[in-house]
Amino acid sequence: MAQGPRGSVSLNPELFRARACVLAWLVTGQFGEIWRWVVRIGVLVLLVGCVLPVAAHHSFAAEFDDKQPVKLDGTVVKFDFMNPHSWIYLDVKNPDGAMVRWSVETGSTNALFRRGWRKESLRAGDHISVDAFRAKDGSNTANASTVKLPDGRQVSAASSRDSK
After folding, report:
1. What SS3 class is residue 80?
2. What's the pLDDT at 17?
3. Region 60-163: CATH code
4. Where do the domains of the chain lie?
5. pLDDT(129) > 70
6. What is the mean pLDDT of the segment spanning 62-72?
7. Which of 129, 124, 122, 126 lies closest to 145, judged by CA?
């Protein structure tokens, strides 16, 4: 490559034509069929790679019971803003006065972000209210439908139940 005016680089025309001819021969010549198969296999690999995560994802009905709604009023212990699901851990006072730790599943970070959530939306010590559905196994685990944030806003928790 030669140095052109004002420091720009100019291409040697013969070298440029030679590279273009080699590329054209690779695509349309005897390697053209191989090239087409490489592209086909690449597309197939991409499609299979996109489908596998969807097939591996669990459904709402597999873990949670939509006939067991719960309303949780408690204090945030921890908020994990992560994929594939974010989690809120909160201490809730039972009717007998004992504190019980609940784990509440929400949607993905992307789904929450689109609904106005941010990583800083919940902090340890915040008092919140959660409308959720209890886990089928009876544990203190639930899937949130809506959350009333400390600032008073009621926001969707991007529940997997909403997508059924």
Report:
1. strand
2. 75
3. 2.40.50.140
4. 2-56, 60-163
5. yes
6. 90
7. 129
**Tokens at 67, concatenated:** 């006939």
**Predicted structure pTM score:** 0.63
- Which of 74, 81, 68, 79 shows the shortest CA–CA distance to 145? 68
Is residue 102 within a helix (H) or strand (E), and if so which, with residue range?
A: strand 99-105
Q: Calculate the dihedral angle through the C-alpha atoms of 45, 49, 50, 53, rounding to the nearest 10 degrees.
A: 160
Neighbouring C-alpha atoms within 13 Å toward the C-beta of 73: 4
Tokens encoding 158: 């991007």
Averaged pLDDT, 35-49: 75
Contact 75, 57 (CB under 8 A): no
Give Cα separations from 83 to 31, 78, 111, 161 (angstroms): 43, 15, 10, 17
SS3 140: coil
Q: Where are the alpha helices (DSSP H) in the chain?
A: 13-28, 32-56, 60-63, 109-114
